[in-house]
């Protein structure tokens, strides 16, 4: 446990040091990288010790100014969820050093908040009582808010940050209610004392909906995801990586901790997770297909991946309630591994997008193209990450989706009506989402890095600093490494994780899971090696006389232009037509009527359907309802004090008068 | 002790009725000195009490009035003009507030005051007066004074309920008040040089809340 | 070992499938047509040629044919052929198979975009979209089969499809066959979803994606396409011919006969159907997915 405190202290101190290190160009980022790396190593040691020796750590600390002790407790869930944070934090810092090097502004405070974000996320995962949890939650929000505001001259960035802030506070409000209710029932803020026994299932369900709104907002659960595609792209890329890779997981972590273990409404929750996850996933990936800004696509894809995780969790809970422990184990392990894997490849994808912004200063898909030749490292890493997120073997995304799919396939064997319904939703839904993800990522990886540039003039491309390159290479290796390590991760951590999720007596089954993963890995690794060898032989032995100085065949058209390449919007058009109801696209175009058409413009504005049809109307209604109250807020200081005075007096008179 | 409490209450009433800033400041410094004496009377000659009393007299009786007077001189504001509630009405309201304070003290039997109920009454009254001034007066200096009076009330209540801890807290608050008024003095000066008035009533020009109604009119 | 030999046999046999289809089509058109072995000749001819690359292309174009070829061959390791046993099998190997197909698709699409031409991008876009819809359809058929047999691997499932199972669930299995047949046609870009023979870019999917390949690369891609067709056909043949044979020679003969017959059927369909309008294709695909689910529902209610 002390190790954890050391890690937090190191990270926070690193943040302070870099914020204090003045105008020095190198020092702030060196402090940030060093402290994050050091802290991450400590966290890794802690996590490893936890799983290998099966130790649980707990500590109580009396922090002054807080009523009651602050409890840190590391169980398998918190240990597991800390892993993505510990992986991404130092690599993100390394990337950020390069990424921020071209901005003229000082980065001291940026690093301070970066480290604060990392530290608060880590302490959120080990919080053993509601007070520490909420404090960390708030610190995380504030730090992320400040980081999102890094580029605060852009109004879009400012709006995104405010949207994020509003959404976060709404979610915190719901969490306050949730925790307050549980604490008032148990008389303590300690998580261990919380229980739902003795509550009617209706009130448990209400509690669940409270926390679903609270945590789901962070996790991007439909329809509370609306802030996410705005805020994540607005932050600097390494922060987006951390937000999408780890911060989303804090919401998932909360729901897993409080609701996935057995309760009286587990079956209901399972269905909500399964169906809600499917809706999130499909909705998000369709919107991702419609977006034309790379980081927004990635943010939507994060929502989609959260949806997949929710589907798997839901299936696991249902299977557990229906006495199919094997299916449940597959689904849970798949979901948790996906938490880890998503952090890795989404981190890499955001860094790839960051490289684009760094090198070309734009993330608009329809303007980019042909960058593989200009920034090959970023391009190659981005393609690898795209393969990983499309769940292609041999990369890590495949491993987790393999487990989730197997859960679905396994469940159908012993089917009843409702089980079959679950499997159909899980499998066909996942397959459809998977196919759309493939479209989405061939679209962005292909259209950005391959072909030729799509703008009329060739853009200037800035070379990437070494830090950015190396951080991406490391993460790309992690994409393969996490897949190869998965049997080991499962055999090490799965048993205690599953028992935490009310599934035990699974030891023999776990062996078979890791053996299965080993086989899959062996298969896909040998495929990888075969391709490599095959390609090398071809290149060394059979490539004589090959020519690579020819133009692309132009189908007889005399003067092909770069602008004639297939564009991002045309690429996803067929798929979008099928789902045209989901995306809120506004096309502004006046039809050509005259015989000799003059110059026309076509403008397509991309909105979020959930924002437009689900979130905005009640907010607008509330806004109208509360409009008269605006009169109270007129900026006159005297009246404000008068409100205070009147309230105080009224309270005093009421209290005294009644006693 | 009851005499001191009565004098405090009277000074408050005077405060409500007076429009001249110089007089008001003098009243505030008078209250500060009274409070220092009150602490000595109530708490005896213990070291902590002496520190409290001396610091109260020095800060509230001498330093703060000096600062305020300086601010007043630099802004050339002499009188409180056109308060929201006229001076005579203020005095009447003050009497009503005094009655309210008395009623409150009578009702709260839980808080058995150690020294005298009169002192608790005047403590409440001072808090109310301070709030009232804050709400109804326009000049920033007067508002500062209202704040000071309110704080005096809190201090007085602390004394009359008498515990060692409250002394410590009181010292802390005293420091806060000092810093606060120091800053306020500086700010008043700057606001004056920027806007050529220190009417807080007009500060809402600075508000960044774009009012719906205002927006529609434009 | 036996399974390995079967697999090698299929690897050798694969290029004959398009030949038969084309021959049938020629017969319907009243023409003599190309020799059945034409694809073998093509591949050998292409293998002797050099490759040309556009200067727009990157390493993806170069590595794609190798990946596609290797992934398709590896896919064959998972698929049971004549002996109803695959070379490699484990629980839920379907998923690996499906994602190997996705890997093939990924590289084809990326290579197509890599050329930087609007035609190839168009093919890539369609391939990606139809692939996305074919995947759930394939899974829905698979779900029904897994439910019917109670097994969790290609080999086990096809060993579980016995004549008695057909008697037990005639209608659901027929629906699964329909479902997978549609998936076969889509995944292999056959009429009515794609016309492999026209040279009008607007109607092509697979052919247009490999437009810029030449020489050895094209040979690999053509071969992989034929092999993929054979793999899908093998699944259907295994489903339609549920009998087990003691002698492997007999099994191989029946299996080969089934494959060739299926190729003829595809040829007949290609000759008698018109190409669907592109807008219609998603509906057909979703419909085929529904077939699998209906099969499942029928079996569930019969249980």
Q: Can you offer a commentary on this structure?
A:
The complex is a heterotrimer of chains A (659), B (218) and C (303). Chain A is mainly α. Helices cover 70% and strands 4% of the residues of chain A. Chain A has helices at 2-20, 27-53, 76-99, 108-126, 130-148, 155-186, 201-219, 228-234, 237-259, 266-290, 294-321, 325-360, 376-389, 396-413, 417-449, 466-500, 507-541, 568-578, 609-626, 637-658, and strands at 57-61, 70-74, 547-550, 584-589, 602-607. In chain A, the strands form 2 sheets. In chain A, strands 1-2 form a two-stranded antiparallel sheet. The two termini of chain A are 49 Å apart. The model of chain A has no long low-confidence stretch (mean pLDDT 85). In chain B, helix 2 runs antiparallel to helix 3, helix 2 (21-43) runs parallel beside helix 6 and helix 3 packs parallel to helix 7. Chain B has one domain (2-217). By secondary structure, chain B is mostly helical. Chain B has helices spanning 2-17, 21-43, 47-75, 87-107, 117-136, 140-161, 164-195, 212-217. Chain C has one domain (2-302). Chain C is 72% helix and 1% strand. Chain C is globular and about 60 Å long. Chain A binds chain B through residues 627, 630-631, 633-639, 641-642, 644-645, 648-649, 652-653, 656-657, 659, and chain B through 84, 100, 104, 107-108, 110, 128, 131-132, 134-136, 138, 200-201, 203-204, 206-207, 209, 211-213.
Element-by-element helix/strand order of chain A: HHEEHHHHHHHHHHHHHHHEHEEHH
Specify the biggest β-sheet of chain B.
Answer: none
Distance between the termini of chain B: 59 Å
By DSSP (H or I, 4+ residues per run), the number of helices of chain B equals 8
Number of domains of chain A: 2
Mean pLDDT of chain B comes to 74
Helical content of chain B, roughly? over 70%
The most extensive interface, with participating residues per chain, is:
A-C, 88 and 80 residues
Shape of chain B: globular
Q: Helical proportion of chain A?
A: over 70%
Cα-atom radius of gyration of chain A: 26 Å
Shape summary of chain A? globular
Count of folded domains of chain B: 1
- Measured by DSSP, the beta-strand proportion of chain B falls in under 5%
Structural class of chain A: mainly alpha
Secondary structure: number of strands of chain A: 5
Rounded mean pLDDT of chain A is: 85
> Helical region count of chain A?
20
Cα-to-Cα separation, first versus last residue of chain A:
49 Å
